[in-house]
Amino acid sequence: MKLFFISDIHGSIYYLKKALESYEREKADYLVLLGDALYHGARNPLPKEYNPKEVAELLNSYKDKIIAVRGNCDSEVDQMVIEYPMMGDYAIILYNNRRLFLTHGHIYNKDNIPKISKNEVLIHGHTHIPVAQKYNDIYLFNPGSITLPKENNPHTYGILDNNLFEIKDLDGNLVKSIEL
Protein backbone atom coordinates (compact mmCIF):
# COMPACT_ATOMS: atom_id res chain seq x y z
CA MET A 1 0.00 0.00 0.00
CA LYS A 2 1.40 3.36 -1.07
CA LEU A 3 0.39 6.40 1.01
CA PHE A 4 0.58 10.02 -0.14
CA PHE A 5 0.74 12.71 2.58
CA ILE A 6 -0.04 16.40 2.35
CA SER A 7 -0.51 19.00 5.02
CA ASP A 8 -1.38 22.65 5.31
CA ILE A 9 -3.28 23.32 2.07
CA HIS A 10 -4.71 26.45 3.70
CA GLY A 11 -7.34 26.97 1.01
CA SER A 12 -5.02 27.22 -2.00
CA ILE A 13 -6.65 25.61 -5.02
CA TYR A 14 -3.44 26.26 -6.97
CA TYR A 15 -1.24 24.18 -4.68
CA LEU A 16 -3.90 21.53 -4.10
CA LYS A 17 -4.10 20.94 -7.86
CA LYS A 18 -0.29 20.68 -7.99
CA ALA A 19 -0.33 18.18 -5.11
CA LEU A 20 -3.06 16.10 -6.74
CA GLU A 21 -1.04 16.00 -9.97
CA SER A 22 1.78 14.54 -7.86
CA TYR A 23 -0.64 12.10 -6.19
CA GLU A 24 -1.75 10.83 -9.60
CA ARG A 25 1.85 10.66 -10.87
CA GLU A 26 2.92 8.69 -7.77
CA LYS A 27 -0.01 6.25 -8.21
CA ALA A 28 -0.61 6.19 -4.45
CA ASP A 29 -3.44 4.13 -2.97
CA TYR A 30 -4.56 6.69 -0.36
CA LEU A 31 -4.33 10.42 0.15
CA VAL A 32 -3.58 11.32 3.78
CA LEU A 33 -4.51 14.89 4.74
CA LEU A 34 -2.80 16.09 7.91
CA GLY A 35 -5.03 19.11 8.54
CA ASP A 36 -5.47 22.78 7.73
CA ALA A 37 -7.32 22.13 4.49
CA LEU A 38 -9.54 25.16 3.90
CA TYR A 39 -8.74 28.17 6.06
CA HIS A 40 -5.49 30.14 5.79
CA GLY A 41 -5.37 31.05 9.50
CA ALA A 42 -4.92 34.45 11.08
CA ARG A 43 -1.11 34.15 11.21
CA ASN A 44 -0.66 33.16 7.57
CA PRO A 45 -0.83 35.33 4.47
CA LEU A 46 -3.53 34.62 1.90
CA PRO A 47 -2.09 31.83 -0.23
CA LYS A 48 -1.92 31.79 -4.01
CA GLU A 49 -5.39 31.29 -5.52
CA TYR A 50 -7.14 31.16 -2.14
CA ASN A 51 -10.48 29.47 -2.75
CA PRO A 52 -11.67 27.25 0.15
CA LYS A 53 -14.95 26.42 -1.59
CA GLU A 54 -13.19 25.05 -4.66
CA VAL A 55 -10.65 23.22 -2.45
CA ALA A 56 -13.53 21.50 -0.64
CA GLU A 57 -15.18 20.50 -3.91
CA LEU A 58 -11.96 19.10 -5.35
CA LEU A 59 -11.10 17.19 -2.17
CA ASN A 60 -14.63 15.77 -2.09
CA SER A 61 -14.03 14.24 -5.51
CA TYR A 62 -11.30 12.12 -3.82
CA LYS A 63 -13.38 11.32 -0.70
CA ASP A 64 -13.13 7.54 -1.13
CA LYS A 65 -9.32 7.72 -1.06
CA ILE A 66 -8.85 10.25 1.77
CA ILE A 67 -7.75 9.64 5.36
CA ALA A 68 -7.86 12.95 7.23
CA VAL A 69 -7.32 14.57 10.62
CA ARG A 70 -8.28 18.01 11.92
CA GLY A 71 -5.78 20.85 11.89
CA ASN A 72 -5.79 23.86 14.18
CA CYS A 73 -7.34 25.95 11.37
CA ASP A 74 -10.10 23.39 10.63
CA SER A 75 -13.54 23.74 12.20
CA GLU A 76 -16.96 22.13 12.43
CA VAL A 77 -18.18 24.53 9.74
CA ASP A 78 -15.56 23.03 7.40
CA GLN A 79 -16.90 19.54 8.09
CA MET A 80 -20.28 20.73 6.81
CA VAL A 81 -18.83 21.09 3.29
CA ILE A 82 -16.35 18.21 3.43
CA GLU A 83 -17.74 14.76 2.53
CA TYR A 84 -15.20 12.63 4.43
CA PRO A 85 -14.44 12.57 8.17
CA MET A 86 -11.85 15.19 9.11
CA MET A 87 -12.57 16.27 12.69
CA GLY A 88 -10.51 13.72 14.63
CA ASP A 89 -7.46 15.04 16.45
CA TYR A 90 -5.67 11.90 15.32
CA ALA A 91 -6.07 8.65 13.43
CA ILE A 92 -4.14 5.42 13.77
CA ILE A 93 -3.58 3.13 10.82
CA LEU A 94 -1.61 -0.09 10.50
CA TYR A 95 1.10 -0.29 7.90
CA ASN A 96 3.19 -3.45 7.58
CA ASN A 97 2.53 -4.43 11.23
CA ARG A 98 3.48 -0.98 12.49
CA ARG A 99 1.18 1.72 13.86
CA LEU A 100 1.20 5.10 12.18
CA PHE A 101 -0.10 7.86 14.46
CA LEU A 102 -1.50 10.58 12.18
CA THR A 103 -2.18 14.03 13.59
CA HIS A 104 -1.86 17.67 12.61
CA GLY A 105 0.95 18.53 15.02
CA HIS A 106 -0.52 21.31 17.14
CA ILE A 107 -1.39 18.85 19.94
CA TYR A 108 0.90 15.86 19.40
CA ASN A 109 4.42 16.47 18.11
CA LYS A 110 8.11 15.99 18.97
CA ASP A 111 7.58 17.90 22.23
CA ASN A 112 4.36 16.03 23.14
CA ILE A 113 4.71 12.50 21.81
CA PRO A 114 1.59 10.35 22.12
CA LYS A 115 1.71 6.93 23.75
CA ILE A 116 3.21 4.95 20.90
CA SER A 117 5.62 2.04 21.03
CA LYS A 118 9.23 1.69 20.01
CA ASN A 119 9.75 1.87 16.22
CA GLU A 120 6.26 3.22 15.58
CA VAL A 121 5.67 6.41 13.63
CA LEU A 122 4.37 9.87 14.51
CA ILE A 123 3.26 11.66 11.34
CA HIS A 124 2.16 15.28 11.44
CA GLY A 125 2.19 18.59 9.60
CA HIS A 126 1.57 22.01 11.25
CA THR A 127 5.16 23.31 11.29
CA HIS A 128 5.37 23.62 7.48
CA ILE A 129 8.89 22.14 7.76
CA PRO A 130 9.71 18.71 6.27
CA VAL A 131 11.09 16.11 8.70
CA ALA A 132 12.13 12.48 8.19
CA GLN A 133 14.09 11.21 11.19
CA LYS A 134 14.38 8.71 13.98
CA TYR A 135 13.94 10.38 17.37
CA ASN A 136 14.66 8.32 20.46
CA ASP A 137 12.86 5.05 19.69
CA ILE A 138 10.24 6.35 17.22
CA TYR A 139 10.13 7.72 13.71
CA LEU A 140 9.03 11.30 13.02
CA PHE A 141 7.68 12.24 9.64
CA ASN A 142 6.35 15.62 8.50
CA PRO A 143 5.69 16.13 4.78
CA GLY A 144 6.06 19.92 5.13
CA SER A 145 3.50 22.21 3.50
CA ILE A 146 2.33 22.17 -0.09
CA THR A 147 1.17 25.80 0.17
CA LEU A 148 3.14 27.80 2.75
CA PRO A 149 6.55 26.17 3.34
CA LYS A 150 8.80 27.70 5.99
CA GLU A 151 12.57 28.06 6.45
CA ASN A 152 13.22 28.30 2.70
CA ASN A 153 11.91 24.79 2.08
CA PRO A 154 10.18 23.94 -1.19
CA HIS A 155 6.48 23.07 -1.47
CA THR A 156 6.50 19.40 -0.44
CA TYR A 157 4.49 16.21 -0.01
CA GLY A 158 5.32 12.82 1.48
CA ILE A 159 5.23 9.23 0.26
CA LEU A 160 5.35 6.00 2.25
CA ASP A 161 5.98 2.95 0.10
CA ASN A 162 7.74 -0.32 0.96
CA ASN A 163 8.80 1.04 4.38
CA LEU A 164 10.51 4.05 2.82
CA PHE A 165 9.37 7.56 3.73
CA GLU A 166 10.22 10.14 1.10
CA ILE A 167 9.58 13.86 1.05
CA LYS A 168 9.49 15.34 -2.44
CA ASP A 169 8.95 18.74 -3.97
CA LEU A 170 6.01 19.23 -6.32
CA ASP A 171 8.20 18.29 -9.31
CA GLY A 172 8.93 14.90 -7.71
CA ASN A 173 12.50 15.68 -6.65
CA LEU A 174 13.63 13.99 -3.44
CA VAL A 175 14.09 16.37 -0.50
CA LYS A 176 14.48 13.92 2.44
CA SER A 177 13.98 10.24 3.14
CA ILE A 178 14.21 7.63 5.86
CA GLU A 179 13.71 3.89 5.86
CA LEU A 180 11.68 2.24 8.62
UniProtKB/TrEMBL annotation:
Ordered alphabetically, the record's keywords are:
Hydrolase, Metal-binding
What cofactor is needed?
a divalent metal cation
Boundaries of each Calcineurin-like phosphoesterase domain copy? 1-161
Q: Does the keyword Methyltransferase apply?
A: no
A GO molecular-function term, please? hydrolase activity
Which Pfam family is an annotated match for this chain, by its short name?
Answer: Metallophos_2
Q: What is its EC number?
A: 3.1.4.-
- InterPro entries given in the database record: Calcineurin-like_PHP_lpxH, MPP_YfcE, Phosphodiesterase_MJ0936/Vps29
Q: Can you tell which superkingdom this protein's organism belongs to?
A: Bacteria
Q: What class of enzyme is it?
A: hydrolase
NCBIfam families in the record: PRK09453.1, yfcE
UniProt record similarity statement = Belongs to the metallophosphoesterase superfamily. YfcE family.
The protein here is known as: Phosphoesterase
Task: Give the lineage.
Answer: Bacteria, Bacillati, Bacillota, Clostridia, Eubacteriales
